[in-house]
Amino acid sequence: MPEEHWMWRCAILKVLSSFMPELPEVETVARGLRQAILGRRILSVRLGKTDFIDDPAALEQHLPGRQIEAVERYGKFILLRLSAVNRETRVAANGDAAQASLLVHLGMTGQIAPSPAGRALEKHTHVCILLDDGRELRYTDARRFGRIAYLTKALLAEELTGFGTDPLEVSEIEFANRICGRRARIKALLLDQSVLRGIGNIYADESLWKAKIHPARLGAKLSRKQAETLRRVLRHILQKAIVLRGSSISDFLDATGEPGEYQRHHRAYGREGKSCCRCKTRIRRAMVAGRSSYFCPTCQHSPRGFVALPLLRKNGKKNKRTEASTGSGKRRKQRNRREEMENHL
Length: 345
Ligand SMILES: [Zn+2]
Hints:
Radius of gyration: 22 Å
Bound molecules: zinc ion
Largest sheet: 4 strands, antiparallel
Order of helices and strands: HHEHEEEEEEEHHHHHEEHH
Number of helices: 10
Strand order of the largest sheet: 1-6-7-5
Oligomer: single chain
Number of strands: 10
């Protein structure tokens, strides 16, 4: 494998060690794939477990013979744009020879990267797409919360309807219109993919902290000026995170490749009990829109009557009241599982 490709593969895997890929992480993976597999022709497809694939037979039937013409990001989706079937090299026996796309959603633990076809499969590899240069594009997913779908032009258009604007492209007026008229909490609006596409828990909390807006504030209560500040800092944070190749929370493959580094710049997310970088007040956590939300109670004024969760004790353990309220054993496991499921949406 050329060294450049290996570097990209490492970078792709590194980024995906994060808890849940959001716009910057997915953009980083898409850029890596663009460097590594653009223009390659697909020769064949092998599948393992298929419960996260929309129509497994469609992949096996329709992918071979097609060239990867573009790699794009749409919200948190990666789209491989596939050429029409080349009739000189392969006769389309399945009646679908027009341009199509392969949609990939990485869920929580999905990884997609090229690998030499002869290399042993990593555990949980469920899709192997043989390319015309002797490599395989492999999809690995331990928890299988991801999704892969072969979509014709019409099905893709149907799939992508209902999504909001990309936060890197949204205009001042459109952003204000989408936020300021809504009687939902701003955190919920940022996470709502029909309002803006691609934002998840990390970048919602980081942008709200930077804009000094409490996550539980209602969209309708924000001034136009606050909405514009939020739009500006959100875009800036996403762009910076893309430059730093996203946020990687665990730390494997750091000996090779370029790691995602934005986690070093987190100011709110995951910092419960630590000092606010602006005012030194301890960062608090609260459930907003069903998700853990991190904020500074001094910089981000809470709506009247809003209560944060009790702070962690200094040894990092929750206090008794918190422990009692969170339940134990099976119930806690069930709740954690539910939170994980919510986090990957
Ligand atoms: Zn503060």
